[in-house]
Amino acid sequence: MATMKSKKKAKQLLSERLSAKGLERDMIPSYIRSMRICYASDPKMPSLKTNRQMQSLGWNNIELDYRFLKQSITYFETENRCGSTQLKEIKGINESLPRQ
Question: What is the DSSP string of 47-61?
Answer without folding.
Answer: HHHHHHHHHHTT--S
